[in-house]
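Q: I'm writing up a methods section and want to include an example of the input and output format. Could you take the sequence below and give the corresponding predicted C-alpha coordinates, formatted cleanly so I can copy it straight into the document?
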Amino acid sequence: MPGVNRPTRHFLRCARAAGVLTMLAVFVARAAGALTLAQAQQQALATNADLRVASAQAEAAAAQLRTSREFPNPVLGLATSKIATDGSSNGTVRGNRILDRSYDSIISLSQLFELGKRGPRQQSARAAQRAAEAQRDEARRLVLQAVSQTYVAALEAREESRVLAASAAALRREAGLANVRLAAGDLASNDQRQIELAASRLELDAAASRHTATAAVIALEILLGSPAPTGETELADTLDTLPLPLPSAEVAGDGVAGTRPDVAAAEANVAKAEADLVLQQRAPFPDLTVSAQFERNPPDQPNTAGLGVSFPLPLWNRNGGAVRAARAAREVAQAQLDKARHQAVAEVAGSRSAFREARARATAFVEQLRPQSAAVAKTVAYAYEHGGASLVELLAAERNDNEVRIAAARAQADAATAAFALSAALNRLAPVHP
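A: Here is the clean output for your methods example:
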Protein backbone atom coordinates (compact mmCIF):
# COMPACT_ATOMS: atom_id res chain seq x y z
CA MET A 1 0.00 0.00 0.00
CA PRO A 2 1.98 3.01 -1.24
CA GLY A 3 1.92 6.14 0.89
CA VAL A 4 1.07 4.24 4.09
CA ASN A 5 3.73 3.78 6.76
CA ARG A 6 4.61 0.41 8.18
CA PRO A 7 2.77 0.66 11.52
CA THR A 8 -0.40 1.75 9.73
CA ARG A 9 -0.11 -1.11 7.24
CA HIS A 10 0.31 -3.47 10.15
CA PHE A 11 -2.78 -2.03 11.83
CA LEU A 12 -4.86 -2.32 8.67
CA ARG A 13 -3.88 -5.96 8.30
CA CYS A 14 -4.84 -6.52 11.93
CA ALA A 15 -8.14 -4.72 11.40
CA ARG A 16 -9.01 -6.93 8.45
CA ALA A 17 -8.06 -9.97 10.48
CA ALA A 18 -10.17 -8.70 13.37
CA GLY A 19 -13.16 -8.35 11.02
CA VAL A 20 -12.71 -11.92 9.87
CA LEU A 21 -12.35 -13.07 13.47
CA THR A 22 -15.52 -11.19 14.43
CA MET A 23 -17.51 -12.95 11.72
CA LEU A 24 -15.96 -16.27 12.74
CA ALA A 25 -16.84 -15.60 16.39
CA VAL A 26 -20.46 -14.90 15.41
CA PHE A 27 -20.62 -18.14 13.42
CA VAL A 28 -19.12 -20.15 16.30
CA ALA A 29 -21.48 -18.52 18.81
CA ARG A 30 -24.50 -19.39 16.71
CA ALA A 31 -23.28 -22.95 16.24
CA ALA A 32 -22.79 -23.22 20.00
CA GLY A 33 -26.39 -22.26 20.68
CA ALA A 34 -25.98 -18.58 21.51
CA LEU A 35 -29.14 -16.51 21.18
CA THR A 36 -29.63 -14.55 17.97
CA LEU A 37 -31.97 -11.60 17.70
CA ALA A 38 -34.30 -13.63 15.46
CA GLN A 39 -34.45 -16.41 18.05
CA ALA A 40 -35.09 -13.90 20.84
CA GLN A 41 -37.98 -12.38 18.92
CA GLN A 42 -39.55 -15.75 18.14
CA GLN A 43 -39.19 -16.92 21.73
CA ALA A 44 -40.76 -13.72 23.03
CA LEU A 45 -43.74 -14.13 20.70
CA ALA A 46 -44.27 -17.61 22.13
CA THR A 47 -43.65 -17.00 25.84
CA ASN A 48 -44.02 -13.30 26.70
CA ALA A 49 -46.58 -12.86 29.48
CA ASP A 50 -48.06 -9.59 28.20
CA LEU A 51 -48.65 -11.07 24.75
CA ARG A 52 -50.22 -14.20 26.24
CA VAL A 53 -52.60 -12.05 28.31
CA ALA A 54 -53.57 -10.01 25.25
CA SER A 55 -54.19 -13.19 23.24
CA ALA A 56 -56.41 -14.59 26.01
CA GLN A 57 -58.37 -11.34 26.12
CA ALA A 58 -58.91 -11.53 22.36
CA GLU A 59 -60.23 -15.07 22.78
CA ALA A 60 -62.56 -13.91 25.56
CA ALA A 61 -63.89 -11.15 23.29
CA ALA A 62 -64.59 -13.72 20.58
CA ALA A 63 -66.54 -15.75 23.14
CA GLN A 64 -68.55 -12.68 24.08
CA LEU A 65 -69.42 -12.12 20.43
CA ARG A 66 -70.71 -15.67 20.21
CA THR A 67 -72.76 -15.11 23.36
CA SER A 68 -74.34 -11.97 21.90
CA ARG A 69 -75.59 -13.95 18.91
CA GLU A 70 -77.36 -16.60 20.96
CA PHE A 71 -81.15 -16.43 21.25
CA PRO A 72 -82.71 -16.44 24.74
CA ASN A 73 -83.81 -19.89 25.89
CA PRO A 74 -87.55 -20.55 26.35
CA VAL A 75 -88.95 -21.10 29.82
CA LEU A 76 -90.90 -24.28 30.57
CA GLY A 77 -93.29 -24.18 33.50
CA LEU A 78 -95.03 -27.08 35.30
CA ALA A 79 -97.56 -26.48 38.07
CA THR A 80 -100.19 -28.54 39.90
CA SER A 81 -102.66 -27.07 42.38
CA LYS A 82 -105.94 -27.90 44.19
CA ILE A 83 -104.40 -30.88 45.91
CA ALA A 84 -106.45 -31.87 48.95
CA THR A 85 -104.55 -31.73 52.22
CA ASP A 86 -107.34 -32.84 54.65
CA GLY A 87 -107.17 -36.49 53.70
CA SER A 88 -110.16 -36.35 51.32
CA SER A 89 -109.93 -37.79 47.87
CA ASN A 90 -109.57 -35.66 44.74
CA GLY A 91 -111.51 -38.25 42.75
CA THR A 92 -114.19 -37.16 40.30
CA VAL A 93 -116.99 -38.85 38.40
CA ARG A 94 -114.31 -39.86 35.91
CA GLY A 95 -112.51 -41.93 38.54
CA ASN A 96 -109.64 -41.65 40.98
CA ARG A 97 -106.74 -42.13 38.62
CA ILE A 98 -104.11 -39.40 38.50
CA LEU A 99 -105.38 -37.90 35.26
CA ASP A 100 -109.04 -38.10 36.44
CA ARG A 101 -108.60 -36.34 39.77
CA SER A 102 -109.62 -32.73 40.21
CA TYR A 103 -106.03 -31.46 40.18
CA ASP A 104 -105.44 -28.20 38.32
CA SER A 105 -102.32 -29.02 36.27
CA ILE A 106 -100.72 -26.45 33.97
CA ILE A 107 -97.90 -26.82 31.47
CA SER A 108 -96.63 -23.51 30.05
CA LEU A 109 -93.94 -22.42 27.63
CA SER A 110 -92.69 -18.82 27.51
CA GLN A 111 -90.33 -17.15 25.06
CA LEU A 112 -88.74 -13.72 25.39
CA PHE A 113 -88.48 -11.58 22.23
CA GLU A 114 -86.12 -8.60 22.47
CA LEU A 115 -87.16 -5.56 20.48
CA GLY A 116 -84.39 -3.40 18.99
CA LYS A 117 -81.58 -4.60 21.25
CA ARG A 118 -79.96 -7.64 19.64
CA GLY A 119 -78.49 -5.66 16.75
CA PRO A 120 -76.69 -3.01 18.86
CA ARG A 121 -75.52 -5.64 21.34
CA GLN A 122 -73.95 -7.71 18.55
CA GLN A 123 -72.38 -4.60 17.04
CA SER A 124 -70.87 -3.77 20.42
CA ALA A 125 -69.51 -7.30 20.78
CA ARG A 126 -68.01 -7.25 17.26
CA ALA A 127 -66.34 -3.91 17.98
CA ALA A 128 -65.04 -5.28 21.29
CA GLN A 129 -63.56 -8.26 19.47
CA ARG A 130 -61.84 -5.97 16.94
CA ALA A 131 -60.48 -3.85 19.80
CA ALA A 132 -59.15 -6.93 21.63
CA GLU A 133 -57.51 -8.28 18.48
CA ALA A 134 -55.94 -4.87 17.79
CA GLN A 135 -54.67 -4.72 21.38
CA ARG A 136 -53.16 -8.17 20.90
CA ASP A 137 -51.39 -6.92 17.77
CA GLU A 138 -50.28 -3.82 19.68
CA ALA A 139 -48.84 -6.02 22.42
CA ARG A 140 -47.00 -8.00 19.74
CA ARG A 141 -45.61 -4.80 18.22
CA LEU A 142 -44.41 -3.50 21.59
CA VAL A 143 -42.92 -6.86 22.57
CA LEU A 144 -40.92 -7.06 19.35
CA GLN A 145 -39.70 -3.50 19.82
CA ALA A 146 -38.78 -4.06 23.47
CA VAL A 147 -36.92 -7.31 22.75
CA SER A 148 -35.02 -5.81 19.83
CA GLN A 149 -33.98 -2.68 21.72
CA THR A 150 -33.05 -4.60 24.87
CA TYR A 151 -30.95 -6.97 22.76
CA VAL A 152 -29.19 -3.94 21.26
CA ALA A 153 -28.59 -2.44 24.71
CA ALA A 154 -26.94 -5.67 25.83
CA LEU A 155 -24.75 -5.72 22.72
CA GLU A 156 -23.71 -2.12 23.32
CA ALA A 157 -22.72 -2.77 26.93
CA ARG A 158 -20.79 -5.89 25.98
CA GLU A 159 -19.00 -4.05 23.19
CA GLU A 160 -17.99 -1.28 25.58
CA SER A 161 -16.73 -3.89 28.03
CA ARG A 162 -14.76 -5.61 25.26
CA VAL A 163 -13.19 -2.33 24.12
CA LEU A 164 -12.16 -1.37 27.62
CA ALA A 165 -10.83 -4.84 28.40
CA ALA A 166 -8.83 -4.90 25.16
CA SER A 167 -7.39 -1.47 25.94
CA ALA A 168 -6.49 -2.56 29.46
CA ALA A 169 -4.76 -5.64 28.07
CA ALA A 170 -2.85 -3.48 25.60
CA LEU A 171 -1.70 -1.21 28.40
CA ARG A 172 -0.69 -4.24 30.45
CA ARG A 173 1.52 -5.28 27.54
CA GLU A 174 2.91 -1.76 27.39
CA ALA A 175 3.57 -1.99 31.12
CA GLY A 176 5.57 -5.14 30.52
CA LEU A 177 7.68 -3.39 27.92
CA ALA A 178 7.97 -0.44 30.28
CA ASN A 179 9.44 -2.73 32.92
CA VAL A 180 12.12 -3.78 30.46
CA ARG A 181 12.89 -0.16 29.63
CA LEU A 182 12.83 0.73 33.32
CA ALA A 183 15.38 -1.95 34.08
CA ALA A 184 17.54 -0.67 31.24
CA GLY A 185 17.31 2.86 32.56
CA ASP A 186 15.39 4.20 29.54
CA LEU A 187 12.16 4.95 31.43
CA ALA A 188 11.32 6.69 34.68
CA SER A 189 9.53 4.68 37.36
CA ASN A 190 6.77 7.31 37.48
CA ASP A 191 5.92 6.64 33.81
CA GLN A 192 5.70 2.93 34.47
CA ARG A 193 3.31 3.52 37.39
CA GLN A 194 1.10 5.76 35.22
CA ILE A 195 0.71 2.96 32.71
CA GLU A 196 -0.24 0.55 35.50
CA LEU A 197 -2.78 3.02 36.87
CA ALA A 198 -4.34 3.62 33.45
CA ALA A 199 -4.62 -0.13 32.88
CA SER A 200 -6.26 -0.65 36.29
CA ARG A 201 -8.75 2.11 35.63
CA LEU A 202 -9.70 0.59 32.28
CA GLU A 203 -10.17 -2.80 33.93
CA LEU A 204 -12.53 -1.28 36.49
CA ASP A 205 -14.49 0.49 33.74
CA ALA A 206 -14.68 -2.81 31.83
CA ALA A 207 -16.07 -4.54 34.93
CA ALA A 208 -18.74 -1.84 35.28
CA SER A 209 -19.69 -2.29 31.62
CA ARG A 210 -19.94 -6.05 32.12
CA HIS A 211 -22.37 -5.43 34.99
CA THR A 212 -24.44 -3.15 32.74
CA ALA A 213 -24.46 -5.83 30.06
CA THR A 214 -25.56 -8.47 32.59
CA ALA A 215 -28.44 -6.23 33.70
CA ALA A 216 -29.50 -5.76 30.07
CA VAL A 217 -29.41 -9.52 29.45
CA ILE A 218 -31.51 -10.09 32.57
CA ALA A 219 -34.08 -7.62 31.22
CA LEU A 220 -34.03 -9.53 27.92
CA GLU A 221 -34.54 -12.85 29.69
CA ILE A 222 -37.53 -11.40 31.54
CA LEU A 223 -39.07 -10.34 28.22
CA LEU A 224 -38.50 -13.87 26.95
CA GLY A 225 -40.47 -15.28 29.88
CA SER A 226 -37.52 -16.91 31.65
CA PRO A 227 -38.63 -18.21 35.08
CA ALA A 228 -35.16 -17.64 36.58
CA PRO A 229 -33.24 -14.89 34.73
CA THR A 230 -29.51 -14.95 35.45
CA GLY A 231 -27.98 -12.70 32.80
CA GLU A 232 -25.80 -15.53 31.51
CA THR A 233 -27.44 -15.93 28.10
CA GLU A 234 -24.89 -15.65 25.31
CA LEU A 235 -25.74 -13.34 22.43
CA ALA A 236 -24.74 -14.47 18.95
CA ASP A 237 -25.08 -11.19 17.03
CA THR A 238 -22.84 -8.14 17.22
CA LEU A 239 -23.43 -4.48 16.49
CA ASP A 240 -21.66 -4.94 13.15
CA THR A 241 -23.71 -7.99 12.11
CA LEU A 242 -27.08 -7.11 13.64
CA PRO A 243 -29.83 -7.19 10.98
CA LEU A 244 -31.75 -3.92 10.89
CA PRO A 245 -35.40 -3.78 9.72
CA LEU A 246 -35.44 -0.58 7.66
CA PRO A 247 -34.05 -0.07 4.15
CA SER A 248 -33.27 3.50 3.16
CA ALA A 249 -36.35 3.83 0.93
CA GLU A 250 -38.73 3.39 3.87
CA VAL A 251 -37.19 6.24 5.83
CA ALA A 252 -37.88 8.89 3.20
CA GLY A 253 -41.69 8.76 3.38
CA ASP A 254 -44.06 10.75 5.53
CA GLY A 255 -46.99 9.85 7.74
CA VAL A 256 -47.97 6.54 9.27
CA ALA A 257 -47.71 3.47 7.08
CA GLY A 258 -51.03 1.69 7.42
CA THR A 259 -53.26 1.62 10.48
CA ARG A 260 -51.32 0.99 13.66
CA PRO A 261 -52.82 -1.49 16.12
CA ASP A 262 -53.18 1.12 18.86
CA VAL A 263 -55.11 3.40 16.49
CA ALA A 264 -57.22 0.47 15.26
CA ALA A 265 -58.04 -0.45 18.86
CA ALA A 266 -59.11 3.13 19.59
CA GLU A 267 -61.30 3.15 16.48
CA ALA A 268 -62.94 -0.10 17.55
CA ASN A 269 -63.54 1.33 21.03
CA VAL A 270 -65.36 4.28 19.45
CA ALA A 271 -67.54 1.91 17.44
CA LYS A 272 -68.28 -0.09 20.59
CA ALA A 273 -69.18 3.06 22.54
CA GLU A 274 -71.58 4.14 19.80
CA ALA A 275 -73.25 0.71 19.77
CA ASP A 276 -73.49 0.77 23.58
CA LEU A 277 -75.15 4.18 23.41
CA VAL A 278 -77.76 2.91 20.94
CA LEU A 279 -78.33 -0.13 23.16
CA GLN A 280 -78.95 2.04 26.22
CA GLN A 281 -81.27 4.32 24.25
CA ARG A 282 -83.32 1.29 23.23
CA ALA A 283 -83.35 -0.25 26.68
CA PRO A 284 -86.74 1.34 27.60
CA PHE A 285 -88.36 -0.41 24.62
CA PRO A 286 -90.52 -3.17 26.16
CA ASP A 287 -89.47 -6.71 25.41
CA LEU A 288 -92.31 -9.13 24.69
CA THR A 289 -92.73 -12.42 26.47
CA VAL A 290 -95.10 -14.73 24.59
CA SER A 291 -96.58 -17.64 26.56
CA ALA A 292 -98.61 -20.72 25.65
CA GLN A 293 -100.12 -23.10 28.19
CA PHE A 294 -102.10 -26.29 28.45
CA GLU A 295 -104.32 -26.81 31.49
CA ARG A 296 -106.09 -29.94 32.73
CA ASN A 297 -108.70 -29.58 35.51
CA PRO A 298 -111.33 -32.40 35.54
CA PRO A 299 -114.20 -32.92 35.53
CA ASP A 300 -115.62 -29.85 33.70
CA GLN A 301 -113.69 -28.95 30.52
CA PRO A 302 -110.71 -30.95 31.68
CA ASN A 303 -108.43 -29.81 28.82
CA THR A 304 -107.98 -26.11 27.96
CA ALA A 305 -105.28 -24.04 26.27
CA GLY A 306 -104.25 -20.44 26.63
CA LEU A 307 -102.01 -17.77 25.10
CA GLY A 308 -100.50 -14.75 26.77
CA VAL A 309 -98.29 -11.76 26.12
CA SER A 310 -96.48 -9.70 28.77
CA PHE A 311 -94.14 -6.74 28.65
CA PRO A 312 -92.83 -4.15 31.14
CA LEU A 313 -94.25 -0.65 31.21
CA PRO A 314 -91.54 2.05 31.05
CA LEU A 315 -93.35 4.41 33.41
CA TRP A 316 -90.84 5.18 36.15
CA ASN A 317 -87.45 4.19 34.75
CA ARG A 318 -86.60 5.35 31.24
CA ASN A 319 -82.87 4.49 31.57
CA GLY A 320 -81.83 8.13 31.46
CA GLY A 321 -78.79 7.69 33.69
CA ALA A 322 -77.39 4.81 31.66
CA VAL A 323 -77.93 6.75 28.42
CA ARG A 324 -76.06 9.74 29.81
CA ALA A 325 -73.18 7.54 30.99
CA ALA A 326 -72.99 5.81 27.57
CA ARG A 327 -72.90 9.18 25.82
CA ALA A 328 -70.00 10.29 28.06
CA ALA A 329 -68.18 7.02 27.39
CA ARG A 330 -68.50 7.65 23.66
CA GLU A 331 -66.95 11.11 24.07
CA VAL A 332 -64.08 9.60 26.04
CA ALA A 333 -63.51 6.96 23.36
CA GLN A 334 -63.50 9.62 20.63
CA ALA A 335 -61.00 11.75 22.56
CA GLN A 336 -58.75 8.71 23.06
CA LEU A 337 -58.93 7.97 19.33
CA ASP A 338 -57.88 11.52 18.47
CA LYS A 339 -55.04 11.27 20.98
CA ALA A 340 -53.87 7.92 19.57
CA ARG A 341 -53.82 9.31 16.03
CA HIS A 342 -51.85 12.39 17.06
CA GLN A 343 -49.40 10.30 19.08
CA ALA A 344 -48.86 7.94 16.16
CA VAL A 345 -48.05 10.78 13.77
CA ALA A 346 -45.76 12.44 16.33
CA GLU A 347 -44.02 9.15 17.09
CA VAL A 348 -43.32 8.51 13.41
CA ALA A 349 -41.95 12.02 12.90
CA GLY A 350 -39.75 11.84 15.98
CA SER A 351 -38.53 8.32 15.24
CA ARG A 352 -37.72 9.21 11.63
CA SER A 353 -35.68 12.24 12.69
CA ALA A 354 -33.85 10.24 15.38
CA PHE A 355 -33.06 7.44 12.93
CA ARG A 356 -31.66 9.76 10.30
CA GLU A 357 -29.38 11.43 12.81
CA ALA A 358 -28.26 8.18 14.43
CA ARG A 359 -27.64 6.48 11.10
CA ALA A 360 -25.49 9.37 9.85
CA ARG A 361 -23.55 9.45 13.12
CA ALA A 362 -22.97 5.70 13.13
CA THR A 363 -21.82 5.77 9.51
CA ALA A 364 -19.30 8.52 10.27
CA PHE A 365 -17.92 6.68 13.30
CA VAL A 366 -17.69 3.26 11.68
CA GLU A 367 -16.38 4.30 8.27
CA GLN A 368 -14.18 7.25 9.20
CA LEU A 369 -13.46 8.03 12.84
CA ARG A 370 -12.97 4.54 14.23
CA PRO A 371 -10.45 3.39 11.56
CA GLN A 372 -8.55 6.67 11.79
CA SER A 373 -8.43 6.59 15.57
CA ALA A 374 -7.25 2.98 15.59
CA ALA A 375 -4.53 3.80 13.09
CA VAL A 376 -3.31 6.73 15.20
CA ALA A 377 -3.30 4.64 18.39
CA LYS A 378 -1.41 1.84 16.64
CA THR A 379 1.15 4.24 15.27
CA VAL A 380 1.74 5.97 18.62
CA ALA A 381 2.03 2.62 20.42
CA TYR A 382 4.61 1.45 17.86
CA ALA A 383 6.52 4.69 18.22
CA TYR A 384 6.43 4.47 22.01
CA GLU A 385 7.77 0.91 21.95
CA HIS A 386 10.74 2.15 19.91
CA GLY A 387 11.32 5.33 21.89
CA GLY A 388 9.78 7.67 19.34
CA ALA A 389 6.82 8.85 21.46
CA SER A 390 6.35 9.96 25.04
CA LEU A 391 4.17 8.31 27.65
CA VAL A 392 1.81 11.29 27.57
CA GLU A 393 1.33 10.79 23.84
CA LEU A 394 0.72 7.07 24.32
CA LEU A 395 -1.88 7.52 27.05
CA ALA A 396 -3.60 10.34 25.14
CA ALA A 397 -3.79 8.23 21.98
CA GLU A 398 -5.10 5.22 23.90
CA ARG A 399 -7.67 7.31 25.73
CA ASN A 400 -8.84 8.96 22.50
CA ASP A 401 -9.10 5.60 20.75
CA ASN A 402 -11.17 4.21 23.62
CA GLU A 403 -13.50 7.18 23.50
CA VAL A 404 -13.90 6.89 19.73
CA ARG A 405 -14.54 3.13 19.81
CA ILE A 406 -17.03 3.44 22.66
CA ALA A 407 -18.73 6.36 20.91
CA ALA A 408 -18.86 4.27 17.72
CA ALA A 409 -20.52 1.39 19.62
CA ARG A 410 -23.03 3.79 21.13
CA ALA A 411 -23.71 5.34 17.73
CA GLN A 412 -24.30 1.89 16.22
CA ALA A 413 -26.59 0.98 19.11
CA ASP A 414 -28.46 4.27 18.78
CA ALA A 415 -28.91 3.67 15.05
CA ALA A 416 -30.18 0.13 15.65
CA THR A 417 -32.51 1.26 18.45
CA ALA A 418 -33.84 4.09 16.30
CA ALA A 419 -34.33 1.71 13.36
CA PHE A 420 -36.46 -0.62 15.47
CA ALA A 421 -38.37 2.33 16.93
CA LEU A 422 -39.12 3.78 13.49
CA SER A 423 -40.10 0.39 12.10
CA ALA A 424 -42.46 -0.11 15.05
CA ALA A 425 -43.88 3.40 14.67
CA LEU A 426 -44.58 2.67 11.00
CA ASN A 427 -46.18 -0.67 12.00
CA ARG A 428 -43.62 -2.52 9.88
CA LEU A 429 -41.71 -4.27 12.62
CA ALA A 430 -41.64 -8.01 11.99
CA PRO A 431 -39.32 -10.72 13.31
CA VAL A 432 -36.02 -10.66 11.47
CA HIS A 433 -35.08 -13.66 9.38
CA PRO A 434 -32.77 -16.10 11.15
